[in-house]
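FAQ: What does the model actually see?

It sees only this:
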Amino acid sequence: MIQFDIDQYQAWAPGLASTDDWANWARDPFDLESSDAQPDVSFLPAMQRRRLSRLARMVFAVATPLAADRPPMPLVYASRHGETTRTFAILNELASEEPLSPTQFSLSVHNAIIGLWSIQQKDTSEMTALAAEGDGLEHAVLEAALLLGEGAPEVLVVVAEDQPPAAYAPWINDVDFPYAVALRLKPGKTWQLNLRAAEPSLSPAPHPHAIQLVRALLNDQPTLQNQWESRQWTWQQTP
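And it is asked to produce this:
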């Protein structure tokens, strides 16, 4: 069991950008669908915006409000598929025997986004990029809790997934829509997260774990269970 406080959170998905958008969806959820929509990152310099993929823009869109006017803090970023779209473009260039862009390659690696974040924020705090499975949210929170236990006053957690190219559809079926969720965690005992073994689930969860947590927070739901394969995670809010 680990304990922590969720000091603040932010989320983005197509059509859901503001707190009111998410609150309305949490009360009456509807299916979130694929979209070419992108979050507003006009607060970034134009030169930097041009370098960012949609995945990176989503991360910056949800993380920046939680880091604004705060001292430097560690970041834990989790994504199962990462910059698949950018990598697929590079593979197409290779197949066509076209010259590769060093910039595109450097931005395709899994930890590129946290590097861009560190540069933009001028923050040299410890940062971690996790190649997670469907319970990447819980593994990211576990990593953050370890950082809090080592003395970090607060830790930023970001979970984000972009839709992979259509060519990956036979193998990637767990990203129906692009999304990003950021949490600012602090030491405390308001929330507990427990892990236990469970029978593999035959039916997938209706939404990604991070989106289910957002709905639980907005609805003041005191408990939440997320399962991935044989791992069952229980979120418990203490009175």
